[in-house]
Amino acid sequence: MTKNTQVIYLKDYQVPVFIIETTDLDIRIGDEYTSVVARLKVSRNPASDADTSELVLQGGSGIKLQEVMMNGLILDDSDYDLEDAALSIYQCPETFELTTQCLIQPQLNTTLEGLYKSGGMYCTQCEAQGFRNITYYLDRPDALSIFTTRISADKERYPILLANGNPVEQGELDNGEHFAVWHDPFPKPAYLFAMVAGDLVRQDDVFTTMSGRKVDLQIFVEAHNSHKCDHALASLKRSMLWDEKVYGREYDLDLFMIVAVDDFNMGAMENKGLNIFNSDCVLADPATSSDAMFERIEGIVAHEYFHNWSGNRVTCRDWFQLSLKEGFTVYRDSQYTADTYSAAVKRIDDVTVLRTHQFAEDAGPMAHPIRPASYIEINNFYSVTVYEKGAEVVGMIHTLLGDELFRKGSDLYFDRHDGQAVTTDDFIAAMSDASGVDLNQFTRWYSQAGTPTLTVTDVYDAACHEYRLTVEQSTPATPECQLKQPFHLPLRMALLDVNGVQMPLTLKNVGLLPNKDVVLNITKASETFVFEGVTHEPVPSLLRGFCAPVKLDYGYTQAQLLFLASKDTDGFCRWEACQRLLIDAVAQAMLKPVGYQLELELVTMLRSSLVDETLDPAMVAKLVQLPSEAYLAENQSTVDVDLIHAGREAMRVAIAQALESQLLDCYQRNHDTGPFSQTGNAIGKRALKNTCLSYLNSLDDFNYQAIAQVQYDLQANMTDVGAALQILTGHKNSDISAPLLADFYQRWQHDSQVVCQWFAMQAGANLPGRLTHVKALLEHDAFDIRNPNKVRSLVGSFIRSAINFHCADGSGYEFVADMILRLDPINPMIAANLAKPLGRFKPHTIHRQELMQAQLHRLSQAKLSSDVYEVVSKALAAS
Ligand code: TRP
Ligand code: ZN
Question: Are 707 and 689 in contact (CB under 8 A)?
Answer without folding.
Answer: no
